[in-house]
Amino acid sequence: RGEPYHFGLGFIKCRLNNRFSANFYHPDLEKTAEAEEWHDHRYDFTSKIVAGTLTNVITNVTDQPHVGTLDDTPFAYNMWEAECKPGEEVKNLGCFNVGDVLTWQVLQAGSEYYMHRDAFHQVAAPDGAITLLDRRPIVKSTARVLKPIDQGTPTCPYSPKKTPEEIYALIKDLYERLK
How far is Cα 137 from Cα 18, in angstroms, rounded to an integer? Predict the structure, then answer.
């Protein structure tokens, strides 16, 4: 369907068609943020781990804006609404509280997980992983991102630029590491 591209959250995305994409989490791939920001999606999806190990952490977010100061809680985040398109502006929806971790999953090859479009999560694959994402129909025009209130706006995940040659070399290297 198209060339794979470096998505700044720490993986290479290759859309196979409108429903499926392969994601390649290479440990040496630079990211636009030190740790992946809490985020939701515009669609529900299932992700199957094809190779490697991936950690998926899900949290809850109160539906009431935070009242008080940053000193009141270490869980105060600004919620940003994003179009998920290169060059699009993000909109600050206000300050919210990130609650407890609801689920912490360490998933091996052959495992899969389901995400509802309104669930906030982070993923990490420090040793590398390859996943197959099965995306359901898009039902929201925007996704939401949470960032600690003292850390500014989210960074556009489309900002890194890699040549197709660099991307294919990283995919090949990841495959060799994980086989």
Answer: 9
pLDDT tens per residue, range 82-115: 776 666 677 888 888 787 788 899 999 999 999 9
Please state the pTM of the whole predicted model. 0.87
Judging by beta carbons within 10 Å of its beta carbon (0-12, 13-18, 19+), is residue 1 exposed, middle or buried? exposed
Phi, psi (deg, nearest 5) at residue 124: -150, 145
Question: What does the alpha-carbon distance between residue 136 and residue 12 come to, in Å, rounded to a whole number?
Answer: 20
- Strand 143-148, strand 76-82: pairing: antiparallel
Strand, helix or coil for residue 150: coil
Q: What is the largest CA-CA distance in the chain?
A: 51
Task: Report the alpha-carbon distance of residue 118 to residue 12 in Å, rounded.
Answer: 23
**What gap in Å lies between CA 2 and CA 15, rounded to an integer?**
6
Short-list 58, 130, 149, 135, CA closest to 100: 58
Q: What is the pLDDT of residues 122-166, one digit of tens each?
A: 999 999 999 999 999 999 988 888 888 878 777 666 656 788 899
Where helices occur in the chain by DSSP H, the ranges are: 164-178
- Report whether 82 contacts 142 (CB < 8 A): yes
- How far apart are alpha carbons 138 and 45 in whole angstroms? 10
How high does pLDDT run on average in the chain? Answer: 85
